[in-house]
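Section 5.1 Outputs to date
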Amino acid sequence: MSTPDAHANNDAHAMPRVPVGTALVGLLAPLLGAVRAGTARLVIGFGGESGSGKSETARAVAVALGTEGIDAIVLHQDDYFLRPPYTNHAWRQAGGLERVGPHEVDLPRLTTHIAAFRRGDADVTGPRVVYAEDRFDERRLDFSSARVLCVEGTYVLTLDDLDARVFFSATHAQTAERRAERARAAEELTPFVARVLAHEHALIAPLAARADIIVDADFRIVSPR
C-alpha cells in the first residue's frame, strides 16, 4: 500500500488541516465516483505561495480519503528541485531573481511520475529531499494500489495533467509565521529572501485563474468554480 505522506519526516512541524481536507473531499465527490468504482485514477494539484498550507492540506486530503478506503499518495514539488535547498539558495543569491521560478524545478520528471501513477506503475524511482544534509535521495514509488494522487507545490498548477486544481490564496506576508515554524535556515527572512518571496508572489498569484477551488488564508473554501 502506498503512503499518504511520503514527505512527513522532512516537514514534521506541519500539522494536517483536517477540516479543510475533509471539506475538499466533499467538494470533489463528483470526481470520486469513478475512483470508488475502480474505473479511474484522480490527480489533484495543490498550488500557492510558500507557507500557504499546500502540503498540510494535501496530506489531510490523503488521510480523509484513506478513512473512506481510497488509497492516496502525496508528491511534493520540493523533492523535484534541480538543486537541494541550501545549494539552490546560494545559486539564487549568486545569480539574482531571474534564477527564481519554475525553471528551478524538474517539472518534466514530475510529469512523468504523474503519468506513471495514471498507469498504476509499481516500481518507480523518485527523488526525496533531505533538508538537513542538503541533498536528494532516491526512493521507490509504488502507484499500483493508489487511486488518488495529490501533487503539491508552488508551480504545480502550471501542469496540464491535473483533474482538479486547488489554489491557496494566502500571500507571503500572511504566511511569514508559518514559514518560520518550519524552521528551515534557507528560508530565514533576510532582505534577499524577502525579495525572492515578492518575486514568487508575482509568478504564483496569476495561477489562481487556473484553479477549480480557492482556499483563503484562514483555510476556508471561498471559491469552488
